[in-house]
Structures are given as C-alpha cells and as structure tokens.
C-alpha cells in the first residue's frame, strides 16, 4: 500500500463527495417533490381512530375527504364529497347528496372498480356507530372523537336513500352535528376495499394500508422513519401540483431545525429557534391562530388534588405571564379559561385565578398543608401547538411552586407511553392541551372536562361535575346563540370555582418552509394539507452557486 | 492452524453461551413479567399469555427455560418490540446493515488516515512533525464525539452548506431494500436516478464517517507509530541498511509490511470501540442504524428490544473480533502458537 | 544523578520519587498536572466559588451571550441559558459532577480492582484460568457500550451511571494489577524477601506495591479520561444525569435545542469536557513518558 495509492483513493472519495452535493438532474426530481419534516409517527392511518394532531396531519387532508368542510375566514360549512345537504325544520333529519365523480386510490394493493357512493358513506359511519359491524372492533374499537361527542347516542341511524343520497336521523337536535361531520375525523373509507379485506381475512389492513379519496395515496411507510405519498392522478378536484410528498419523521426538535437549515426538508412542523429562521432569507416562518388551549390539569381523584382548595392554591401560585414570555416566546394569548377569546361564546367577564402567591399560601394553610407537600407534574415529551415545550414549562412551575413550599417532581415519558399511563390515572398533575377540531365552543367544554370524557377519552382530570355537565348539554340542545352563550359563561364560572385545571395560554401553530414552497399548508382546524402546494423554480442565489460549483467540478 | 481454529471456536462458543445467558437473565432483571420481557407482547390476552408461558417453558426449571429461550433465538425469534409491536428480528435486519456500513467506512478512513500518519511520526521520531502528530492525536482522542458531530454539522451543513446533516440518503430517492447496505442497494436498483442517488448517499456518509473515524484514527496513529519504531529498531532493518538499500526501499519493502501485521492484530479491538462511537454518532446524524434504535429503546423502556439488540450487537462485535484474529493468524504464522492470545 | 553533600552518601530516592523528578521536568506534563489539580479544587469548592445557583434561574436574564459578545453582560461572564441560569456557575458545579464523580469512580474501582487483582494473582489453576477468560470477554467490550448496557438494566440516572462506570472499570484494574503483580513476583528481589521468610501479604505490601504504583496511576489516568467522556456521553444521551443537574454532557444536550440561537450553551460545556480530558491525558502521558525514561536510565 503506497502513499500514492492512498492519495488517489482520497482524491476519488473527495471527488465523489463534492459531486454529490449538486446535481442538475436531482433538481427536477426535487422540484416535483416536497419533503415535510414531521414531529412524530401517526398512530394509525385512519383518523377515526385517534385524536392526536400528528395522526390527522399525516392522514385526514392527504388521504381522505369528508362530506363537508369548513371554508374561509369565518369557517363556513361548504360542500365537499356531499355537493349539497338539507336539514329538516326540527333539525333531526339531515340529507346529503353525494358527488358522482369521486374516485378512490388505485394502489399496489387495491384497484377500485367503482366510484364513491352511498355504501361507502354508510360503511364509514356504521363502523363507528354499530357495535355489531364487522369492522367495529378492528384496530381496537375505540373511536375517541366520536365517543367524546357522544355520536352513537345522538345518531339514531344512517339511511341510504339511493346510490348517491344518504340521510342521518338524529335522536334530538344537536347544534354541533354538522360541524362534527366537517372535522378531520369524519372521513369516508372505501366499502369495496373493506369487503375485499374481509374476504382475504385481513381486516386490520384497512387502517394500515389505507384507501381513501384524498389528493395523495400511500406508496411506502417505514415505521418511525418516513411516509412516502404519491399524487392521486384521478382526484375528483384539481389534482395536486407536486407528484411526491415525503414525511420525514423527525421527533427531535433540533434535528428538524438542522434539516430545515441545511435545506434537507422543505417544510418543517413546529420549528424552534424562530429568530434564526427569520434571519434566513431563504426560509419563511408562518403561523395560524388556531383555537386551542394549553393547561395544567389536576388529577381530581387523587390526594391532595381531590381538595378544591389545593387546586386553587396551586393555580394562584403559577405565574402565567412568565410562562408565556419564556415557553411561548410571547407568541401566545394569555388564557383566562379554556375558551379562546376568538370564539363567539367567549365572555370577557370570565373570572380567573390570577397570580397571587400570598393568597395561595394562605389557601394551602386552610386546606391543611401549611408545610406544603410533594407532587409530580407530567410533562409531554413532544411539542404541540398549545404547548411548544412542556418540560421547560414544568421547570418554571417547579420554581413557582417552590415559593409556596410545594416540591415538584417533573415526570416525562415517550409520547405514546405518556398518553397510555395518563389514561390509567397514574399522574397527580399534568401538562396537556386541546386543539379544537371545529369552531363550535362545545368542542372545548365537552372534550376537556365532561363526565363522559372522563371515562373514555380526553378528560384526564377525571373531574365530573353534575351542574357543569347539565349546562353544556343544554347548550347543545338549543340553537339560540344568546342562550348558548349564557350557558357557556356559567360553565366557565364553575371551572373558575372548582379549578379542575389551570388554563395557561392560547397559542399559534407555527410552521417553517423554504421560500420555494408556495401554497397554503396550515389551516385553522385539524391537519395539514398539501393539495394546493407547489414548488417554485429555484433561481435564487444558492442555485446559481450550485451551477458554478458544477462547472468547477467538470 | 488446526489447534488455533479449534481454540477460537471453543472461545466463540463459550462467549456466545455467556452472551445469551446474560441476555436471558436480563428478562429477569428488568421490571415486569419475565415472559412478557422475553416476547414483548405487552397486550397479550390470557390465552395468548398461557401459550407464551408454554413456549418459553416458564413452568419448568431455569435450565429448561434457558433452553427454550435459546431455541427461540436460533429460530430467529427475538420476540416483538414493546413499543412498535413489530418483530425485532425484522427491525434488526433493517437496521444492522446501516451500522455495518457506517462502521466499515469509518474503519477504512481511520486506517487510511491513522496508519500513514503513525508511520510518518515513527520515521521522524522525536522531531517536530512527530510531536505535532502526537499532539493532534491526543486532542483528537480527547474530543467528545457528540460535540464533534454537532460542530461538524454546524460548520459543514449549515454554515458552508457542503454536506447533508441527516440520514443515509435524501428521502426523495426510492431505493429498494435488498441488502441494507445502501451503496450496494443503489447499484442493484433500477432507479432512473441511480448515479445521483449514489453520489447523494456518498455525500451523506462523509460527515458521520469522519466523526466516527477520528478517535480510532488517533489510536491507529499511536499503534502504527509504536509498531514502526519497533520494526525500525529490529536487526533485519539494520541488515538491510548494511546491504546498502536506500531509505525508501527499506521503508516500503520491509518496514511497512512488518509493521502492518502488528497493527492488524488490534483492528478487532478497535472495531468494537468504533461501533460504540457509531452508536452515539447515529443519534446525532439521524443515521438509521441499530445504535440509535437501541438508545431509543432504552428511553422507551422497550426491554425486549434492549435485550435482543444488545445480544445481536455484542455477537456482531465478537464475530468481527474473531475474524480479525484469523486474518492475523493467516498473515503471521508466529501468532498461531500463541497460547494466551485473546 | 550526582548531588553535593557534605558526607559522601549514596541517596536512593524511592521509585516513586524518581518518577516525580522526571515528571516535573516535562513542562507540558506539569501544565496538565496544574490544570488537573485546579479541576479537583474546583470540584470540591464549586459551591463556594460559583456566583449563582446552578438550578434556579433569573427569568429576566434569559439567553444572555457571554460577556465578550456585544450583547453580553459582565455579571454573567459566560452568559445564561434558556431559564436564565448562569452558565459559569453551571459549569463550575458541573465540574464536581462530571470531573469529580469520574475521579471518585476511578479511585473506587482502583481500590476494589487492586484488592481483587492482587488476591487473584496469588491463586493458580482452574479458578485463575476461568477468571482470565471471563476478564478477556469483558475487556473486549468497549467501556461506553458496557456502561450503556448496565444503565439499560439499572435505568437512567446519575447514580446508576456512576455504578455502571465503576462496574466497567473494576475488571480493567483487576487485569492490570494481576498482570503487574505476577510479573513482579517472578523477580529476584521478591525471591530474596521470601527467603527471608516474608509472608505473601508482606511481600505484596512492602515490596511489590511500591514498584507497581505508577503503572496503576498511568492506568488510572486512562480510566479517568474514559470516565469523563462516558459520564458526559451518557448525560448527553439522556441516560445519565437528569435535568436539572448541571452535568456537562446534560447541559450540552439541554442547550441543543437552542444551538442555533444560543450556541454558547453548546460549545462551552463541550470545551469544558475537552479541557478536563486533555488535562487528564497530559498527566497520563507525563507519567508514561517518565516511566519510560526511568526504565531507560
């Protein structure tokens, strides 16, 4: 082995690596594709089965369509798969007229023989509603969103009028029913595909290798690493502008930022270091005001938080302004209660437990803890729009509570373990939040704190208050806006008195993208969409530099 | 050679038994139910659990249990991951090649850089260049790998924009999984972007491979320097000089060859060191290898994955160890009689 | 080594003193030694020296760059982190965790390793051979990997990390003590004192140990530098020291999120680790160099 040989080997290595950076051919491939750095893996490819934001990001608006959608600034209901609908006067019968030209995905594992019709709609909703349905128990039989809004108790049945007409018959009037159908969870699956899977005795596949009508279909999924989507060529609307969409699953915040800065992904979810991104001319930071709330919840079934006074004391001892300045970098609105100010039901006279450590201390004495006590706070390991950094928030709370003699232990688990253990009630207090699925205020009141949700879904305070439950039920049964407002104001007052949780902030959802990427990705509700997104031709500085380097190499 | 081979094989079997015994006992040491730790089936129903208990012979004595565990391992059944509920053997087959690829490239770089530098230092023994090389080697040896990796990303990926910072290849390229070694898979694939993919993959491996290579390279500098100094002091070199061979003839014909043999002996041990560094580096460069997977399994308390991952990784390290022993023995007849060689 | 004395008298400094005489003539080694000693002092007295608390932050002073930066603040010499904690104080406290703990771990495993090693050096036969083989297997696994394995069993945390590293180093010290003691026992002076009727223990204590102590020290510095890197790496991976402990690797991992807006939270702890390891290695190199020279003399 001579030095010459070594040198030439090194030279070859160097040449191959320098050549690897830029390439005229790859530009075209990259122009037709977008890499999205996402913060986690979806729990399932069927959004009916999960309320996690990551899951709806990766599925709802990419793979599926819903009967109706929210449109525009004011979130007005608009047609989608249903080209029109009709509600009877008593609000109990709702008829949908379907489009006739909606094609399902054609993939390596399924070729559809027909377009979407009433059977598919019936299949999708009966799977959720009917416990006897052959697919009801597939993938666990939990439909958290639908259970949370008590869908099965509300819907009497779903009827097929003809091939392209479907009618929902409700047991009572519910003012949030249509809004629920427009959420990311009420997607339409393929009945034909389900039948085929049942014959092959592999029903589980329906949620693993999904078939929908959305603008993209799944080409490849590698657990924990990437999801590759291809464009649906026969999409019923204008087809997507990009051919390939890759979800690069990067749970680490730093690696997402690094990939964005190094231009290894075009769009990044939940970016950190906003200042750095703003400095770069080739990157663009954007945000949407989404309806959400980040809160500290107390396990009201466990001592000492079964005592209302202790909950109030802890709430009084936390400096929310400091948290908003540090954790949210002042990019969030101060929360007085669970409902954001932008909701129509918001009452600006809502009382709140402000920052008052002295009163907190005296309340603790009344409650019988003059010396303070020890507690744990469970902090989510992942950034969510409502809480970009729960661990830091927990540390701040830890410092605040130390002043009133309460010692805090911060606990964190991997995301899915965290949620599972939380549902078992192992915690004393926890940092979590809620992103609205639709603009109806009921979505906050029912999902976060109702009795039914304390058993099955998203109420991890396990708080169950009779009067509160009555109020939010009454609010749903009337369509008189003023009356609903009054009910919700009263409900917020009960939350103030009982303090099952401390609402901290309503924040924006952030996203960073390369300036080459054009089109709307974020929406106010639910998942991201890439239907209207395109990549501009790169005539910026970096492309020129690349071209020059290429010449030098040649 | 025969006794040498037999001795190595017996050592191999002894070690494999020790490693499987360790991994078997991990199931008892970890919290939770032993059979669930073995199989990873956290959501098993009562009947499934009974079946598992029978398969792992949990009602019999420990020796039988160990036997049942071994037979599962030999059938390639490592249980399933507690976190993802997919078979661990399948995950390992996907991940191990990436680690092998990174480690081999790094080993190559470490040897190509370290050995010549060590030789130069030895030839210029106790001169300025020797001191410079030794000082550099010491600093290189002292830098924490993870810090070096971060600085490399900051400099080469972000500030200069020369090299990518994460992964094995740009995700835009669809490369069919055949061997798992990315370069081979690219060459086997029928992608229209084959050569671009190849270049892209080589650009991706540069940073992590150099970061992994740094510490072993400094060790190779020391080893080769020591070996070369020893060889140069040997009598056959003096004899060659007396014969009138010039300096470069002595170095290239005699000294290098003999010094290299001494170094090969240490390659096995260095490889183990290198794989450990690779584990940390994989985390920083999001390299889809077994190290990152193992560390994530520790975060998630995925005991089945930890147990099997460790078993596979240590077996792999040990196999490489034995292989280098064989290569050394084949090259150097003196080593075969050595009774105490490890 | 001639000395002027009034009476002509041969002075034989002990082997250890001979080594020290050579060691202190190497300037680089002495610099390393000075750094090493000051790190030890820092590790002991950091609570007295540090200007601020390492855990409680000042929320009005978040992410201030180091003082030499134009936005810096002199009262926070090395800047602050995202919770307004003083980096200098954190790094000073960190010296007692990363450096101090590694020092304690090495001393601990040295003592245990020497005891077991010298006892095993006196045994022979199958027990000894079994020990030899087991040691070979353990020693062929790199220390960091072994530490990761042990932490995986014990669970993450700083105390578990320390135990894991101690368990990793004990075999190394057993091995080197055993080897050194066996070698010394073959020498003539041991035979001489044995003929004088000295017991094995006496020989070990009065004859053998003074002659192998610097070899153990050289091994200890190697172990020390490995221990610093191992503790920091485990801390960085989130398997070692947990938040809010100011362990250097953990500080670095914590700063990672703000690498691009507050790079000092990453490069300062990295430099601290590098400094500690280089100081340790310089001392080690100095000892080995001196050992070699003494042998040649």
> Largest sheet of chain C, if any?
none
Helix content of chain B: over 70%
End-to-end C-alpha gap of chain C = 10 Å
Largest interface: B-C, 41 and 40 residues
Q: What's the story with the biggest beta sheet of chain B?
A: none
Topology order of chain C in helix (H) and strand (E) letters: HHHHHHHHHH
The ordered string of helix (H) and strand (E) elements of chain B is HHHHHHHHHHHHHH
The number of helices of chain C is: 10
Shape category of chain B: globular
- By oligomeric state, this entry counts as heterotrimer
Low-confidence stretches of chain B: none
Radius of gyration of chain B: 24 Å
The overall average pLDDT of chain B, rounded, is 85
Shape of chain C: globular
Number of helices of chain B: 14
What portion of the residues of chain B fall into strands of 2 or more residues? under 5%
Distance between the first and last residues' Cα of chain B: 16 Å
Report the portion of residues of chain C in β strands. Answer: under 5%
> Helix- and strand-based class of chain C?
mainly alpha
Number of strands of chain C: 0
